[in-house]
Amino acid sequence: MITVAAVDDDPLVLQGLPAWLAPADSGLVVIELAQSVDELLRGRGRDADVVLLDVWLGDGSTVGDNVAAVTEAGPAVVTISTQDHTDLIVESIEAGALSYVHKSPDPTEIRAAVRAAAARHKFMTPALAFALRSDQRPTRPSLSLQETESLRLYASGLRMTDVARRLGVKPSTAKGYLDRVRAKYDDAGRAARTKLDLRERALEDGILRPSTTVLGPRPLRRVTG
Question: Between the CA of residue 206 and those of 7, 39, 53, 98, 126, what are the distances in Å?
Fold first, then answer.
C-alpha cells in the first residue's frame, strides 16, 4: 500500500481527494491533508511515501522551497496544478519533484505518477514535457535538431555507431553532434561528461521519456535542418 499526503490551499480539493484518488482497489491510501507545507510536516504527512503538492499556495511560499522541505523530510513529491505555469513546473522539478501532473477529472495519470514516485522514479507527463521544452532559461541549452536527436538516441542506450546509423550519418559526425551537446550543457553548468549524465539531462529536459530504451539499430532517414 502506498501512503499519500496532499498539500493544497483549496479545502474543497482536499475534501474530495481521498475518494477521487484512492478508492479501495487503487493500492493507495491518503493519510494526511494539509493547506501548507508547515502543517503537513507537523503531522503524519512527513511519513507519507508520496506528497502531492500544489505549485501555487497562497501563503507566500515558493514551490522550490516547498519541494525541498518535503523531500528533505523523506517523502517523494509530485507537483500538481490546474494551470500549467512553465516557470513553476520547472522550478519544482529542479528542486527535486519527480513529476508534475495537471489536475483533471481523470485520476489515471496522477495515480501513475504517484506509483512511480513511490519507487523513486521520475514520471514524464505531457504537461511536464511541454514545460521542459518551453523552458528558455540559460540553464537549458539550445540544441539543434541533429543534436537533440543524437542525444535522445545515445541516452536511450544506443552505441555511437548505432546512433550514426539511425541518423544516416558517419560515426564521426554523430560524435561531433554529441560533443557539441556536452559542450552546451557544460557551458550551462550542467554535468554531461558521461553517458549517465547525458541520460539525466535528457530526462530532465523532456528529450527522453523515463521508460525509453532502444534495443537495437534500425535505419533512420537523415536528419536535416
Answer: 26, 33, 21, 13, 9
**Of the candidates 70, 76, 65, 105, which has an alpha carbon nearest to the alpha carbon of residue 3?**
76
Structure-block grid coordinates of residue 73: 523530510
Cα R_g (the chain), whole angstroms: 19
Tell me the C-alpha distance between 114 and 99, whole Å: 9
Cα(37)–Cα(83) distance, rounded to whole angstroms?
20
CA distance 159 to 163: 6
The cell numbers describing 4, all together, are 499519500
**Residue at 100: amino acid letter:** Y
Comma-separated ranges of CATH 1.10.10.10 domains in the chain: 136-225
The topology under which CATH files domain 2-134 is: Rossmann fold (3.40.50)
pLDDT digits (tens, 9 = 90+) for 130-176: 887 777 666 778 888 788 889 989 998 999 999 999 888 999 999 99
Q: What pLDDT shows up at residue 66? A: 95
Burial state string for 9-22 with b = 16 or more CB within 10 A and e = fewer than 16: eeeebbeebbeebb
Decide if 97 contacts 53 (C-beta within 8 A): yes
